Amino acid sequence: MGVRCEACVNLPSANVLIQVAIVGLLTGGVYALMAGGLSLIFGVLRVINIAHGAFLVFGAYLAYWLFRLYGLDPILSILITIPLFFLVGAVVQRTMLSRVRSEPGLFVLVTFALAITLEGIMGALWQSTGRSVRTAYTGEVIKLAVLDFNLRLPVVRIVGFGAAIAVLGFFHTLLLRSNLGRAIRATIQNSTAAQLVGVNVSRVQAVAFGLGLAAVAAGGSIFSLIWTFNAASHEEWISKMLSVIVLGGMGSLPGAFIAALIMGVVESVAAVTMTTYLSPIVFYLVLFLVLIFRPQGLMGTRIREG
Amino acid sequence: MRRNVLRWWPLLAFMVLLAYPWILREPYYHFLGFNMLLYATMATSWNIMGGYTGYKSLGHSAFFGLGAYLVAIAANQLGWNPLLSAPLLAIVVMLVAMALGWIMLRTSGSAFVIATIAMLLIFRLLALNLRDITKGAPGLSQPLPPWPPEFSRMPFFYYMLVWLIVALVISAYVRRSRFGLGLLAIRDDEGKAEMVGVNTTLYKVLAFGLSAYFVAVGGGIWSYFQTHISPVFAFDILVGVDMILMTMLGGLGTLWGPVLGAFILIPASDLILFTFKSQIHLAILGALMLLVILFLPRGILPTLQDWLERRRAPRAAFVGARAMADVLAEQAHAADGVQPVPDERVVAEEAKR
């Protein structure tokens, strides 16, 4: 097998690469749902919600307990967590964010403080044991033979991808077809102008924060199906979501979608070609470098300031 | 009379601190005292960037960890005395911070905050993975201090006190210098600061480096104090969060605010940690930070000062007018060193040519 060294990049076979890339795409769909809410919140409120990761893990815990106590499949628990988190989001926006003196950097600190508060509460409630939902189909694999490749795709990833796309479709329709959606998009484009033509911007902001959290609640349910988590996991996941939306261009929802797929694939490939422990560095480096050298990301507005 | 007390209170506080380890002789209090001084120093340092310049870094733990690791590695491999090497190696950290700052300070506001978090995470991941140098997750040990164990913490306490004073002197000096005036101008309006001739990039990079320096010194001394360090504790984001919380609690951008914040928060935090589990402690820390930002955004000292001034206001109307004249004169004097503001019309005309 040649010389072994931890830091070296070892190239796996084409079959493995293709399989890993497809799993990465499926994962990317879930990332799109998780990070989409973050991008929406930034677009409307110009706030980077560091607590998004903590809300994700919180949603995952809710799905976990609904499954453990009532046997409710995490995909179905989405129907409960979405309205709940929507309300929580609207309340958080009204009671906290809208009161903060508008100063760059201060908003981030508020959401960061919210994140560690949530982490502490979750840690106190549910200890540091890693949790994950094990349904009947956990661990099942679908085998596919396409051309010369034998692909093995985990069922949970396919289910997760399907659910994520369905929820994203719902949000997409909401944003494109409803009056509320039009008001939100107008506020993203230019909040002053939106206010001038009669949009109640402060209400739109509360709604957008609620919708952002609703999206991450759905993401959390799916998350509980695929990954293991504990209270401290949010740190790792917020950096992943941040790198997705920064790469996609802050505030741009199509950008977030494309970037999520890209990062899903990049992460899976990095996981088989680099040391597992070092592979998260891909996210951190993307985050760091894109912020500094291409702050507008793939398709978005520049966010070096603000 | 009151005036005199106000003028001499730093000296008074200094005497109290000198006597502290002899009054409270339990080892625990020495530990607590060291932590108070350590965090007061680091918060003072953070304040130069976060308070004076307005760029709030959440990644300062990176410099803390870097200082801690450099000192531990130098002690193990080269046999350097940690107490002497800490301020020396912190210069290396300062240069690293200035290089990184030069890149990161292309951003501002939230983007800057997030870039600093990403920087910290990269350093932590490197500390976990470069096992040849850092020994990975289990961490590094270094030789115990040579003095007898019953005194073990007292030298650390006094050494840290020296560094707190150095940091305060530098911070006070910066605040009054032309450099500090430039930093305050950047905080208030970066575009205008640039227009009146402040080299904003240079100023920000210097301030960032300076604010990393004392954090790195603190990390180096802490590393010897602990004798064993690991990536999780050395590159803990909460170390940086504590610096921010203390500064904001005491008074963002004031000289004494960070010290006051550290002297309140370290004992309070320890008390909470003793009473509750560590997870509740985290929740309380977060909630406290929320409360401070929402309801006391300027911190204790400025709020207190305002309140005192408002109480004294009627009596001081005449004195106030004279003080204002003084301030105006002082400002005019301070502005002597700064290039004059170009008239907009003149600039426009020159641009046409």
Give an account of the 3D structure:
- The complex is a heterodimer of chains A (306) and B (353).
- With 306 residues, chain A is mostly helical.
- Chain A has one domain (13-293): Orthogonal Bundle (ABC transporter involved in vitamin B12 uptake, BtuC), CATH 1.10.3470.
- Chain A is built from eleven helices and two strands, in the order ααααββααααααα.
- Chain A has helices at residues 14-45, 52-70, 74-95, 106-126, 155-177, 179-189, 191-196, 201-226, 234-248, 253-273, 281-293; strands spanning 141-146, 149-154.
- Chain A has a two-stranded antiparallel ribbon.
- In chain A, strand 1 and strand 2 (149-154) form a beta hairpin.
- The longest helix of chain A is centred in the first third of the chain and has 32 residues, at 14-45.
- Chain A starts with 13 loop residues before the first helix and ends in a 13-residue tail after the last helix.
- Chain B has 353 residues and is mostly helical.
- Chain B folds into two domains: 14-299, ABC transporter involved in vitamin B12 uptake, BtuC; 313-352, no CATH class.
- Chain B contains 17 helices and two strands.
- Chain B has helices spanning 2-23, 27-53, 61-78, 82-104, 109-129, 131-134, 154-176, 178-188, 190-195, 200-226, 231-234, 237-250, 257-275, 278-295, 300-312, 317-335, 344-352, and strands spanning 140-141, 228-229.
- In chain B, strands 1-2 form a two-stranded antiparallel ribbon.
- The radius of gyration of chain B is 22 Å and the shape is globular.
- The chains are: A mainly alpha (306), B mainly alpha (353).
- At the A-B interface, helix 4, helix 9 and helix 11 of A face helix 5, helix 12 and helix 14 of B.
Secondary-structure topology with pairs:
The complex is a heterodimer of chains A (306) and B (353).
Chain A: H1 14-45, H2 52-70, H3 74-95, H4 106-126, E1 141-146, E2 149-154, H5 155-177, H6 179-189, H7 191-196, H8 201-226, H9 234-248, H10 253-273, H11 281-293
Antiparallel strand pairs in A: 1-2
Helix pairs in contact in A: 1-5, 1-6, 1-8, 1-9, 1-10, 2-3, 2-4, 2-8, 2-9, 3-8, 5-6, 5-8, 6-8, 9-10, 9-11
Chain B: H1 2-23, H2 27-53, H3 61-78, H4 82-104, H5 109-129, H6 131-134, E1 140-141, H7 154-176, H8 178-188, H9 190-195, H10 200-226, E2 228-229, H11 231-234, H12 237-250, H13 257-275, H14 278-295, H15 300-312, H16 317-335, H17 344-352
Antiparallel strand pairs in B: 1-2
Helix pairs in contact in B: 2-7, 2-8, 2-10, 2-12, 2-13, 3-4, 3-5, 3-10, 4-10, 7-8, 7-10, 8-10, 12-13
